[in-house]
Amino acid sequence: MNVNAEFYNIIREGSLPAMSHFWLNSDYVKCVHATGELFTGYNAVMNSWGLLFNWGQDGGQGTDFQLRDVRARVLADVAWVNMKVHVDVDPGPFHVTNVYEFRNGRWYMVHHHSSLMADPAPHNLFG
């Protein structure tokens, strides 16, 4: 849970150097931002965060998050966290899944997926 909170602190700071140390430097890491774009591999993922941090007047700094319904699961050297993230910018809120891998004595992010929450439907769409 602390590692997951650190991830959102890095986003608040808009620090690409901190983000680059947070992710595992591997070709199999993946990131899906709320736009739906998929980035695969360490360099592509870091480039996507660089663009995100440079977007807007303040470079992404000062963004406020409220993490809700946070659930974590750890199995050996892999952990995942699911949550709802409410952000002080439109659109939102988001469903988020973060996956971490334990390597060399610390946790690294290997997958981030964020998608816009759908408006609550008046009925079940699948049945």
UniProtKB/TrEMBL annotation:
Signal peptide, first to last residue: none
SnoaL-like domain boundaries: 2-118
Top-level taxonomy: Eukaryota, Viridiplantae, Streptophyta, Embryophyta, Tracheophyta
Protein's recorded name: SnoaL-like domain-containing protein
Domain of life: Eukaryota
Database matches in SUPFAM superfamilies: NTF2-like
InterPro entries from the UniProt entry: NTF2-like_dom_sf (IPR032710), SKIP8-like (IPR044260), SnoaL-like (IPR037401)
